[in-house]
Amino acid sequence: MEEILKTIASDIFRQDEWGQKAQYIPELAGIDPRQFAISVCLKDGSLYSAGAADKPFSIQSVAKVFSLVAALGRVGDQLWTRVGREPLGNSFDSVLLLEQENGRPRNPYVNAGAIVTTDALLAGRAPKLALAEILCLIKHMSDSDSVYINEAVAASEQKTGSRNKALAYYLQSHGNLYNDPELTLGTYFHQCAIEMTTAQLAMAGRALASLPCAPKVISHLRARRVNALMMTCGHYDGSGDFAFQVGLPGKSGVGGGILVIAPNVASIAIWSPGLNHYGNSHAGTRAAAMLTRATNWSIF
Q: For 152-172, what is each residue's pLDDT tens digit?
């Protein structure tokens, strides 16, 4: 595995195309896109990495996986009365289907769905308590205490997040937001600003991969369902292409991170901040495809 990852990293750095940075979040717009890291945790608990695996990055929408796990633990399947489980086929911040479907988001990984999930997790509590629950869960899953929220990134998102604010107020107009929109949005922006390394993120994915070394924070059945949504919805309107190229469930974020799950085999975390036209990591997607070809890991 160590040699496979070194080969992947070497191949990535030999290529010239790194994608585009997330321009609409000022704190992310200045990051050098020519960066790469990959970490793989196997079922025996061994962790292998290549590249800048100890450099923290903003996990952005990868955090939606952990807030979903937390919300399901708190409200259970009641969440699905407010959020669907179908692919979107539009951009992650689209309002089109939300309008057509009476304020019920298609899935918990698009922005509107994640805002509803955050609202369910908030449940009348102070935002700092809901955020503490997400952070404590991630720290437990990753076996690491050094996971933090980057306050500068959170403030940057709050300042420029007009589309997400529109989504939240539209959800409220349909009765699908129970807390004050500004409280829910503040919680949502802060969870997206969580920073982790690929080493930490790969460790956090162990429970979703149902690895024997993972902490018991989610049932096998619920992990399967979270992974199924990652497969069909985790890369937005690029989910089908990711499934075609990689063959494993994955969740991306505009910070350039990707969490990939090989059920019962491995948890994989990749980071490269340059994005493709879907808003997913350009080099990270290529690296995930290289890894599954080299290992023959696939759910198919």
A: 999 999 998 899 999 999 999
What is the rounded distance in angstroms from the CA atom of residue 113 to the CA atom of residue 17? 32
Does 254 participate in catalysis according to the annotation? yes
Residue range(s) defining the domain that contains residue 105: 63-192
Report the distance separating Cα 70 and Cα 208, nearest Å. Answer: 13
Distance of CA 227 to the CA centre of its chain: 12
**Residue 300 lies inside a defined structural domain of this protein:** no
Within 3-140, strands assigned E span 37-42, 47-51, 57-58
Please tell me whether residues 212 and 247 are part of one structural domain.
yes
* Calpha distance 131→218 (Å, rounded): 19
Let me know if 236 is a catalytic residue.
yes
Instruction: Please list the residues that pair with 20 across neighbouring strands.
Output: 275
* Distance (Å, whole) CA 169 – CA 171: 5
In angstroms, rounded to a whole number, what is the distance separating the alpha carbons of residues 26 and 38?
Answer: 25
Whether 260 is catalytic is: no
Count of the separate structural domains present in the chain: 2
64, 116, 156, 272: the active-site residue: 64
Tell me: the pLDDT tens digits for 279-288?
A: 999 999 999 9
Residue at 234: amino acid letter: G
**Is the CB of residue 129 less than 8 Å from the CB of residue 190?**
no
pTM above 0.90, yes or no: yes
Residues 119 and 185 in one domain: yes
Known active-site residue 62: no
| Cβ–Cβ < 8 Å for 188, 118 | yes
